[in-house]
Amino acid sequence: MESPKTPRHDKQLSASSCLMENLLGLLRIRVKRGVNLAVRDVRSSDPYVVVKLGKQRLKTRVIKKDVNPEWNEDLTLSISDPNLPVRLKVYDHDTFSKDDSMGDAEFGIKAFVDALRLNWEGLPVGTVVSRVQPCRQNCLAEESCIIWTDGRVVQDMCLRLRNVECGEVELQLNWIDVPGTKAA
């Protein structure tokens, strides 16, 4: 006699528990603002940002007619492999045609995740615990400091966009511990 098939929700539960086993935590990316973004419409652009990590894809809202937009929007990614780069693309929203590319960038999070594993309790607020230098792999426009502040580790970064004539995007990384994960 054949055994009964596993109900669909049990398969989903086992897939999510497998994900939880590999999950290190959540990376909150605050997309702060764009600086001197490329003009794609008549005199301006309607930019938005798409952030990708593996199969995860998140996007900000569209800011109308602004090449120096301020999003101040949080996008949260699940992290299971700190060696995967985070990819970022900026687009100009068009109503009647395909959205135009306004450049792309990528950055690694390994140094940030490594800094989380150390105990920084007792350090003064604002202490730089690590520095990431610009290189071809990370698209940093300048040195990015990983800082201990208010009982947590944060990293501010400015990314120079590639494949476009001009533009930078400013981000801040924060970590969210999830109970029951490898990092918690």
TrEMBL record:
InterPro entries linked to this entry: C2_dom (IPR000008), C2_domain_sf (IPR035892), CAR1-11 (IPR044562)
Example GO biological process: abscisic acid-activated signaling pathway
This protein's record includes keyword Ribosomal protein: no
Keyword list, A-Z: Abscisic acid signaling pathway, Calcium, Cell membrane, GTPase activation, Lipid-binding, Membrane, Metal-binding, Nucleus
Keyword Membrane: yes
One term of GO molecular function: GTPase activator activity
Domain (C2): residue spans on this chain: 7-125
Recorded family membership: Belongs to the plant CAR protein family.
Protein's name in the database: C2 domain-containing protein
Protein's organism: Nyssa sinensis
